From TrEMBL:
It comes from Amycolatopsis pigmentata. Gene3D superfamilies: alpha/beta hydrolase. Keywords: Hydrolase. This is Alpha/beta hydrolase. It comes from the Bacteria. Residues 30-263 form the AB hydrolase-1 domain. InterPro entries: AB_hydrolase_1, AB_hydrolase_fold, AB_hydrolase_sf. GO terms for molecular function: hydrolase activity.
Length: 292
């Protein structure tokens, strides 16, 4: 598959990413937002590439580096927040839409972990470009106590690089849920994470998600993995989180057995990606029916 780098100037800074070059007219643009401590290559790990599968299925997929990751410029110190990232990404996707949107009905956001929290912020802003739906995974509303305590005990000031053993324990499920070698392949997408993001995901995010979600009117797809080490996982938490989206056109919530936090790298990643692409198709079709 052919991929290219993209870059968009936003308020004197640059948001970068990688994109496929195919994608049929009439299909929605897919914009993917990675999680904390990762970059745009999270969605392009060999054998588990959302970009490759999306292009093969007739979609153009753009995986953006969030501010401060990959080749994207960092936010200023006081701006490092989910809402600050959402503001810049909103503008970048607007520029992206102006460049690439001709012949497409709109944009569907596919997101992971902190990227999903930021996708909620973006959708709640009611962007001027045509947002058709959001697909969220790797995020919840309640973290285990040991994760909250560990994040709040981190030294302030600089980015944090999780040790490989901690990344393996928190981000991946039992060994029979992923192929040998995928953790090493995924290292190319790993980066240090700003401590501000780690504190917000266990602080301001759980406190404010319900209010943000209530303002979202587009369809929502939500997946929570069985072995996600960063969130409390059970049917009640799944239902509670999905229930926050009281104004959404519809909500499709699923507890995914047999996978961990980095669901995109597990043996079930293809199933996840196919469901996400099907969701994007449905968002585009239902949106066209409403507009028509």
């Amino acid at each position: 598959m052919t991929k290219a780098r993209v870059g968009y100037p936003v308020h004197g800074r640059r948001i970068s990413g990688i994109t496929t070059t195919g994608g049929g007219a009439g299909s929605p643009l897919i914009v993917a937002l990675h999680g904390g401590g990762l970059n745009s290559r999270y969605f392009d790990v060999p054998g588990h590439s959302l970009l490759d599968l999306g292009e093969a299925a007739g979609f153009r997929v753009i995986s953006l580096d969030r501010p401060g990751y990959g080749e994207s410029d960092a936010l200023a110190g006081g701006e490092v927040s989910f809402s600050g990232s959402a503001e810049f990404l909103d503008a970048a996707i607007g520029a992206l839409w102006t460049e690439l949107g001709a012949g497409h009905p709109g944009v569907v956001l596919l997101s992971h972990s902190i990227g999903s929290a930021i996708a909620v912020h973006i959708a709640a802003r009611e962007p001027r470009w045509p947002l058709l739906g959001i697909s969220l995974h790797g995020v919840g509303d309640r973290s285990p106590a040991h994760v909250v305590d560990a994040w709040r005990a981190l030294p302030q000031g600089g980015p944090v690089e999780l040790p490989s053993e901690q990344r393996r324990a928190l981000l991946y499920g039992p060994e029979d849920t992923f192929d040998a070698g995928v953790v090493d392949l995924a290292k190319a997408s790993a980066e240090p994470i700003p401590v501000e993001e780690m504190l917000e995901i266990v602080g301001g995010w759980p406190e404010g998600v319900a209010e943000l979600a209530a303002d979202i009117v587009v369809p929502v797809q939500y997946t929570l993995a069985q072995y996600d080490g960063l969130w409390v996982v059970d049917e009640s938490r799944l239902a509670a989180f999905a229930g926050y989206f009281t104004s959404a056109a519809w909500v499709d919530a699923r507890l995914q057995a047999g996978a961990g936090h980095n669901l995109d790298h597990h043996r079930l990643s293809r199933a996840l990606h196919l469901r996400q692409l099907a969701f994007a198709c449905e968002c585009a079709a239902r949106g066209s029916a409403v507009r028509g």
